[in-house]
Write a structure and sequence with these properties.
278 residues, alpha/beta, 434 Repressor (Amino-terminal Domain), Endonuclease, Chain A, 2 domains
């Protein structure tokens, strides 16, 4: 123990995560090779994460949670998400951790194309404007665009989730960036809708008061068939896991689906918008 490296958890978020990993291991009396064997990693990898020489990955954190039997808000996964996505809306990092494992994703969006369908040019244009307004830094803008790519990669896996999106008409009518960016974004929507695991519907302006949601909402179904909903206000996101509160949201979503345009009519509207882009 004499040559054990002293940790400095206050030096960086990664150092704090590493120090906590060592603390959890010490509390159980485990050696690094014992923890590594349970996680499927070498003791050297465990040591490097504990001392901050290597950055923990999301799979590493999830395996650490499994080894330690951690769940809920105090997991290493949650810490990793908050560390990586610190520039995001409160509540969103926890949500995308579940989104990447969901077997069904139902979403409704207002004003902007949903992140799961955004082209990187479209996403970058939105974040560039946030930098211009002084809301975020250029580094945070690059991080947000990278997160869009990560989220899309997470659902583009061998066993793809079913994705059902109802997109408010304002999302396709609101021009973001150049005409070329908008045309490419419309193409992306059409391409996604053609996938066997996806459906896209437009909620037209004519729905009026029949539209049950005024803010974006997403409903996730996990492999164990549990459901959760995620909704955002201007200042924070809220992830709801209590089925008593999720079921009314799911019921309202079904009503939204019934009133929205069919996928065929929705794609026709998207193509009309695309052709009309000057």
């Amino acid at each position: 123990m004499a040559n054990r490296k002293k940790l400095e958890p206050d030096s960086s978020p990664q150092a704090a995560l590493g120090a906590r990993l060592r603390d959890e291991r010490d509390k159980r009396g485990w050696k690094q090779h014992e923890l590594g064997a349970m996680m499927g990693y070498s003791p050297t990898q465990v040591s490097h994460v504990e001392t901050g020489r290597k950055i923990a990955t999301l799979p590493f954190c999830r395996r650490a949670d499994a080894a330690f039997g951690l769940s809920g808000p105090g997991t290493f996964e949650r810490e990793w998400l908050e560390m990586k996505h610190g520039a995001l809306l409160e509540g969103f990092p926890g949500f995308i951790g579940y989104e990447g494992r969901a077997v069904e994703v139902r979403l409704y969006e207002v004003g902007v194309i949903p992140g799961l369908f955004q082209t990187l040019d479209y996403a970058a244009t939105i974040e560039e404007h946030s930098v211009t307004r002084g809301a975020i830094t250029p580094e945070q803008a690059r991080e947000r665009v990278a997160i869009v790519a990560d989220r899309q990669a997470a659902i583009d896996r061998p066993t793809r989730p079913l994705v059902h999106a109802v997109v408010d008409e304002s999302c396709i009518r609101r021009r973001v960036g150049s005409a070329e960016i908008m045309r490419a974004q419309c193409d992306r929507l059409v391409e996604f809708a053609e996938q066997p695991n996806a459906m896209i519907q437009i909620a037209p302006f004519s729905m009026g008061e029949r539209r049950p949601f005024n803010l974006p909402v997403t409903i996730l179904t996990l492999p164990d068939r549990s459901v959760m909903s995620y909704a955002e206000s201007a200042h924070r996101g809220h992830l709801e896991r209590d089925r008593r509160f999720v079921e009314p949201v799911l019921s309202a979503y079904y009503q939204l689906q019934k009133a929205a345009l069919s996928q065929a009519d929705s794609l026709a509207m998207i193509n009309e918008v695309r052709k009309g882009t000057p």
